[in-house]
Amino acid sequence: MTVEVSVLENFGREAELRKKWMRMWERLGVRILKMPKWMQEIVLEDINTAVRNRIAIMEMIQKCEKKPLK
Length: 70
What we know:
The structure is a single chain. The chain is 89% helix and 0% strand. It is mainly alpha-helical. It folds into 2 domains: 1-34; 36-70. The protein is flat.
């Protein structure tokens, strides 16, 4: 029973996070689509770079936290 509850809790958290992402991208998309195409390309490339870099940093932090101190 506990395993089922934790799975459902994680599913609910993931679903909520997905909704939050979708709302954020919807708002950003409306603004981005008002720009000329060449600006859209620049903004989307900047967003892609920023997100990839942030994820890489967070993954490095996460790996450091898991390693035992020597």
